[in-house]
Write a structure and sequence with these properties.
mainly beta; two-stranded antiparallel sheet; three-stranded antiparallel sheet; 5% helix; binds FE2/S2 (inorganic) cluster
C-alpha cells in the first residue's frame, strides 16, 4: 500500500498560465497517453497551445490573433468564403 504523504500535494494555479504541480507526476492524457516528469515542480499547460503538451512551453504568453479565432471577423474571399 502506498505511503500517505505528510501533507497534500500542492497545485498552484496561475492566471492565464499553467498549473504548477509539485513533482514527480504522471499525467494521463485524454487519449490515454502517459507522460511522466520527475522534476521538482511541473508546469501543466491549460491553454492547449503548448508544442510540448501537456507540459507548458510558455506559448500561453504569445498574443492571440482574435481574427483567427472568430470566423465572423474574417474577410470573405471573392466566393464569399470567410
Ligand atoms: S499554459 Fe503555458 S503553454 Fe499552455
Amino acid at each position: 500500500m502506498p505511503k500517505t504523504p505528510e501533507r497534500p500535494r500542492r497545485v498552484r494555479m496561475e492566471r492565464n498560465g499553467p498549473l504548477l504541480v509539485e513533482g514527480p507526476v504522471e499525467v494521463i492524457g485524454d487519449d490515454g497517453s502517459v507522460h511522466v516528469s520527475r522534476r521538482f515542480t511541473v508546469a501543466l499547460c491549460t491553454c492547449r497551445r503548448s508544442r510540448t503538451y501537456p507540459w507548458c512551453d510558455t506559448s500561453h504568453r504569445r498574443r492571440r490573433n482574435p481574427a483567427a479565432d472568430s470566423p465572423s471577423d474574417r474577410t470573405p474571399d471573392t466566393e464569399g468564403n470567410a
